[in-house]
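Changelog entry: the histidine kinase record was regenerated in this release. Current contents:
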Amino acid sequence: MKLQSKLTLFSAATKIIILLVLVMVLPPVVNRIALHNTDQRLLQKKEQVFDIIEERGLESFLSDGADDTYGSYNLLKEEFISMEPIDPSQINNRIENTLRKVEDEVVEYRVLSLGFELHGATYLLEIGRSLDTIRETSSTLQRYALYFLFSVVLLTVFMDLAFIKVLLRPLTLILRKLQRIGHPDSFKPTPLPTNTSDFVFLNETINTMMGQVKEAFRKEKEFIGNVSHELLTPISILQNRLENLMADLAVPDTVLLKLVENQKTLHRLKSIIQALLLISRIENEQYLKNERVNLLALVQDVVDEISDRAELKNVTISMSLSQSPVLQKANYSLLFTMLFNVVNNAIKYNKEGGSIHIDGVRKDTRYELCVSDTGTGIAEDQLPKIFSRFKRNHAPDGESHGLGLAIVQTVAKFHRIKLDVSSEPGKGTDFKLVFKEL
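Regenerated structure tokens:
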């Protein structure tokens, strides 16, 4: 998972956890606030009642007579005010929840009870507000509070996503620059447009490291050039000397046989060195891909070149290529070597009188070229090892040195060709080359 996705998920998860905690805490808090506001409202109404009594007298609430009482409920029974004379010993000032029966209906109220004295008499003032109204107000507050919290969380998640994207943009630029590197020589150190010191340090470190890698590859190229001269030249000189000795009629037959064996050994050594140098040069991209190669013509050239070997083993080669593509950026000689090695292996490990079929078919933007043989096949546990250098099955001609398929894999990677091998011991092998982005 990308770093940006992880940071976004972490930010969203923390906010969701906070939201869940608030959802759990919110109801009791809102209820507490609603009751507190109700109590404050009851106290305000008490002050208003006392202001009226002070201004208009107690008679504005009570009728004539000392035992008269006063009670008033609003239309929906949401609030009430009552006043009645009581004994001084019954005074108990409080605010509490209590049930009241109003017109044969029991209603739960939040009631302020307050005793006071006026003109030598003691009265009980009660001001109440319906708890259903309080709960409805509390429910409304909770709902809108949840809407608000959810909106804030959603908004902050999008803001965090945008901020993280902007914050990590330098890292994205660094990754894209690294992904475009096909070879160390193609890397060009560039400054990073950011003021974040961590990313600046990372970019400078990568630039320095790639500079060191480029220098190492430059030295390797020089080494390869030196090796090709220092090793192949002495081998060629030794081969010429052996040929001169073999041409001398005075050399005994026993010595001549040994000279022939030495000549074969030198030839084998020269082939191995040339194969290793070829692989190294390809991996170091010392070859150009500036040719247009017709795949059908390439296959035909390989078949023509190798037909003599097939005839010696009585192996028939057939071709069936439909809609043969033209590779735009390729190296003909390397592709020829790659396909030649594949077909040569199909001949080498085929049975006497066997066959090889080269089939090509286009699939969307890909072209699949399959070389199938009727040879000895490869054991399933050996398939992952066939591209390893110097790893080979027993070659009937004794000439194989285990680098043919290593060259095939190297050329395929150089041309971005996908290799797929399937085999069944005793029945043959299918070697598929998938050319992409045609």
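The first strand starts at residue 70 and ends at 73.
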